[in-house]
Write the structure tokens for this entry.
Amino acid sequence: MRNYFVLQYSMANRHLSEFGVNPFLGAGLLVFGFVGLSIVLFTKTEFAAYIYPLIALAIISKLSETGRNDFLKTIFNELGYYRIRIIENCLVALPFIIFLTVKSSSIPILILLLSAFALVFVNFKNQFNFTIPTPFQKHPFEFIVGFRSNLVLIISTWFFTVMSIIFGNFNLGIFSLLLAFLIFLSFYGNPENGFYVWVFSLAPHKFLLRKINTAIFCSTLLCLPITLALSVSFYSNVFIIIGLQALCCLYLATIILAKYSVFPNQMNLPQLILLALSVGFPPLLLVVIPFFYTKSINRLNALLQ
């Protein structure tokens, strides 16, 4: 069992190194980012103590994937398997528990601990032996796969929206909208096989335009319940809601361009730094978007022309 965790640690370090980040620096950045986002969440809404465990459980639920757990069962005996699953779930929950302890939130800690332990015995895909329908028909695969893989997280954004309306908390509603787009951005984190680009048989600029239009259409479709509910309930802030969604769509287009600017490789530190800077200072998008667009055209020329 010890060798298993040593292997996981080595693989994590290797991924960071391939990403162009020193493992120790990467760990520090993760801690800094986690603490910073946690502080922002607890500052923006009084429901943070209950949203926080849901975020942790959404991450932990990824460890309950059928194929992964079936593989573990072939390597370890039953006792060893459950020991590994308990340790993994506890390790993921630990940072959240520490922060909740600092905030003196005992009930959310108890909920998180019990739920993390219960998820050890849950295998989600064994319980859902059917294909989850999506509203995207034959559109490119990112949103079809992303929707099915992150259905719980997407439903949680709708839940947060309902809570924001019930308690009249506009900030919580904005958080649900931002969380939805953060989930959508994650759909474009990994490059697909070159065949799925070549099969379009389009000029590079038309291919990028099609990808961006599809992403904006699908994200708007999934966010429609959120934007309509918030616009009706907080009608005085309707221009803020529309403007924020438009800005999020712009970032969605930017990450698509960033993805194909290094295709078929995965995005690494330079691209993420530019994206992070543009999030902190949106006018920078006027420079970042043309830069990524030019790089994407050059990368795609080899496949599409």
Remarks:
- The first helix runs from residue 2 to 18.
